[in-house]
Amino acid sequence: MSRKPLAIGTLSHLIGYHLRRASGAFALDFHEAMAGTGMRQVLLGILAIVEANPGVNQGAVGTALGIKRANMVALINELVDAGLLARAVAPDDRRAFSLTLTSVGRERLTECTARIEAHEARMLDQFTNAERQTLIALLARIEARKP
Asked: What is the CATH number for 29?
């Protein structure tokens, strides 16, 4: 027996409600797409930033991703221990560490990026390319307002 969906009332016009629901759907599909890789969104974010900025200071990576310093240390340790990142004393600031991807890290990022692209294609298969770009632009405007 099929039931008629419940009306969601005032929630129907609340953007935050729809963002949370969409985020939950994306997160679940992302988790399934990454099965077997041992990778989480935050780790992939770090690898992507390091790939785009070889030798970057780990503090700058944390700032770019909104990760607190104390949490960043544990995340970097996890990636170094997994052989995905190399950490060295920064030549311009001996108190800081610079980061680079290892060859294994580059391969893992390439594999995971392909999985993410397939995941996003699945999730957004009803969107045109123009709509996807509009969605990214609109979300970026919301993100830019964070404190």
From this structure: 1.10.10.10
Q: How far apart are CA 66 and CA 87, in angstroms?
A: 20
Number of domains in the chain: 1
CA distance 54 to 6: 51
Position 91 in a domain:
yes
Give the residues across from 97 on adjacent strands. 89
In the chain, the largest separation of any two C-alpha atoms, in whole Å, equals 68
First CA to last CA distance, the chain: 48
SS3 6: coil
Locate the DSSP E strands across 7-132.
56-57, 85-90, 93-101
CA atoms of 90 and 118, how far apart (whole Å): 36
Q: Is 46 helix (H, G, I), strand (E, B) or coil?
A: helix
Q: Per-residue pLDDT tens for 108-126?
A: 999 999 999 999 999 999 9
Q: What is the pLDDT of residues 81-104, one digit of tens each?
A: 999 999 988 777 777 789 999 999
Instruction: Note whether 91 and 98 are within 8 A (CB).
Output: yes
| 7 contacts: CB under 8 Å, gap ≥ 6 | none
Separation CA 76–CA 59 (nearest Å): 10
